[in-house]
Write a structure and sequence with these properties.
With 149 residues, the protein is of the alpha/beta class. The chain has a single domain, classed as FAD/NAD(P)-binding domain, CATH 3.50.50. 25% of the residues lie in helices and 29% in strands. The structure holds flavin-adenine dinucleotide. The site of flavin-adenine dinucleotide (FAD) has 22 residues, from helix 1 and strand 2.
Length: 149
């Protein structure tokens, strides 16, 4: 908290191995004492540690291995917001999150703007085909839960 009662806003984009750990630790250290407002944004509602994606693919993943972001946020004193970041304005310190749609393309959550004082980008990476002929067309990639299904 600064002199003018402005609470420092930390926005973390990406709740993977690093972002979720960071949000949890910062929530417990700063969020709990209201020394900062921690917001985690992820494109999905649950976290599955990527090395377990083969278990998702095989249908053997134990449900307890999934982390519901909302529940974790409640337990660990940070906020969770569902949505995919699609833009950033560093001058205004704003990030832009796309509308969230259902399977039919209907809008469930409108697009939103989040202001930050500190921004952490933790959006991970995806497999690279290195433009090797045939790879993109014929390989099964395993970077996300949806791909594992
Ligand atoms: C199949 C597989 C097996 C692996 N096995 C191992 C292993 O055995 N040991 C090991 O050490 N490492 C392993 N890794 C690597 C390890 O999973 C990664 O190094 C680690 O997950 C990287 O963490 P991260 O937080 O950087 O990103 P990630 O864990 O990839 O998380 C990124 C998060 O960002 C979110 N996101 C992405 N873009 C956006 C956006 N625009 N807006 C909002 N949210 C977004 C995603 O939904 C995701 O939750 C494996 C990876 C894969 C794919």
């Amino acid at each position: 908290m600064t002199e003018n009662n402005h609470i420092h806003k930390i926005v973390i984009v990406g709740g993977g191995a690093s972002g979720l750990e960071l949000a949890t630790r910062l929530g417990q250290k700063l969020g709990k004492k209201q020394l900062a407002e921690i917001t985690l944004i992820d494109a999905t509602a649950t976290h599955v540690w990527k090395p377990l994606l083969h278990e998702v693919a095989a249908g053997t993943l134990d449900e307890s291995e999934q982390v519901e972001y909302l529940a974790q946020a409640y337990r660990s004193h940070f906020r969770f917001r569902l949505g995919r970041m699609e833009g950033l304005n560093r001058a205004k310190k704003e990030i832009y999150v796309a509308p969230t749609l259902n399977d039919k393309g209907e809008e469930l959550i409108p697009g939103r703007t989040f202001h930050y004082d500190t921004l952490v980008m933790a959006i991970g990476s995806v497999s690279n085909s290195f433009n090797i002929k045939g790879v993109a067309e014929h390989c099964l990639f395993l970077d996300s839960t949806m791909q594992a299904f």
